[in-house]
Amino acid sequence: MDDMHVPEGKLKGKYKRIGAKVGRVVIIMQAISIVVVMLVCIFMYNSLVTKMQTDRCTNGTNMLAYELEKLSEGDDPNQLLDELKNRMGCEFTIFEGDTRAYTTVTQDGQRVVGTQLSSDLNKIVLQQGDTYVGESEIQGASFLCSYVPTKGDDGKINGLIFAGISREEAKQEVVLVIALSILVSAVVIGICIMFLTGYMKKRVSHPLGKITSAAGRLEQGDLGLADNEDIRIDISSNDEIGTLAQMFEDTFGRLRSYIGEISDVLEAMAGGNMTQGATQDYLGDFQSIKKSLDKIQSALNHTMGQISTSAEQVSSGAEQVSSSSQALAQGATEQASSIEEISATMAEISQNAKQTAEAAEKAGEYVNEAGSHLGVSIGFVDELNVAMKNISDSSKKIGTIIATIEDIAFQINILALNAAVEAARAGSAGKGFAVVADEVGNLASKSDKAAKATKELIESSIIAVTEGGNIVNKVTEALDQTSQSAGHVTDQMSIVVDAVENQTSALSQVTDGIDQISSVVQTNSATSEQCAAASEELSSQASLLKNLMRSFKLKNIR
């Protein structure tokens, strides 16, 4: 399974391994990392190296000041400066006042001495006595430098010392450091890519190739049953790929087991053995296959059992038909004498049918008349129901008016009370008004009582009218049902009349049929003999069918 099997028609374009895709992604990511590292290095090293070089200049001036304290009168200052330059990689200068007296800076092979300090630095270092650390231009070249003032025995500033590094040299150092950093990073990243590519190929691409090959066989329906091959996916991994490989192996084994058992059951059924069934526990949707197979087997068992039972019944029935055919021939003779009696009876039945038809027509007329009367009654009841509804509506309106009267009486009663209070305040001058207020209050009370009594009567009337309406509705429903029943009776009477007329017509046909029956009876006698011979042939075929059914092995289904 080292070569991946890719199903035809399943993929468009060139097939690519996932390991190769991951490798390309890793390479792209590493290239991006190199660019990012380069930019970070340029930024960081430029700043860092600049600070380091500035610190080196500061250390240079400190070292020069220290060495000058130890310098004897006979020692050459230029020799001291050259030694410090070789040791620290900086240019050094000793100023006497603002004039360069000793220096390692050369031009055309000669030390640059006797030149003056710039006015800006003169002001900062000599006049103000401050240390200057930063950039400065010397002989047209830019330097990172450190200027420190020097003092004589009297404590006054008598000159300064200088330590500096050319910016061009500083840039070269930065470029060199960055180049080395990028080279080291590229080598490390290249090694990582090689290692990761090999790892991806071993742990991802090859295992997935084996799984894809197995999936291709599964897609083609190759489970190894034909060659009795146990399909294995040789992957030893404790990650998702190993789990996937194990699941594929389990799937192959389960499908082989299921299909093998189903094939055995179908072969047994083809050989007539209906007792062998599926015994495994089928998982998931495979349960429906087992259920369907069990249903097919059960249905075939049931059908074969019915065929076997039917064969026995046919055999038994054939014997009965044979004996019945003989009895039929004997009965045909007896039928001939009975037919003459039937003919006389039919004439009497025909006369009775005519009388029945006339009576049915009269009954239909009576029922139609009763139905028309019921229709009129239903109309009157409907009008009564409408009138009672109108009475109920009017009573409700009267009740509303009475409620208004009650409100008015209540307001009048309050006004009477207010008038009585005002009359009491007026004293003797309001006595006559108090009498009138009492009378008005009495009238308001009587009106309120009368209104309440009337309201109770109206409510009783509404209840009575409602009950009457319900009764009228029930009467209407009863009359409707009676009218419908009358209509049904009329329809049935019409059917009876038609049936009697049809019977009268049919009786004449029956008479003709009886004559035909007489000739048929003669034919039946000959046919009975033929049936006896056919029943013997049927009996032999039933025996043959029973013998065929014995070759099937069926379950006992109850």
TrEMBL record:
Keyword Oxidoreductase annotated: no
Gene3D superfamilies per record: 6.10.340.10, Methyl-accepting chemotaxis protein
Signal peptide: none
GO cellular component: plasma membrane
Organism superkingdom: Bacteria
Principal location class: membrane
PANTHER family in the cross-refs: METHYL-ACCEPTING CHEMOTAXIS PROTEIN 3, PROTEIN ICFG
Family from the record: Belongs to the methyl-accepting chemotaxis (MCP) protein family.
Protein name (Swiss-Prot/TrEMBL): Methyl-accepting chemotaxis protein
Species for this entry: Schaedlerella arabinosiphila
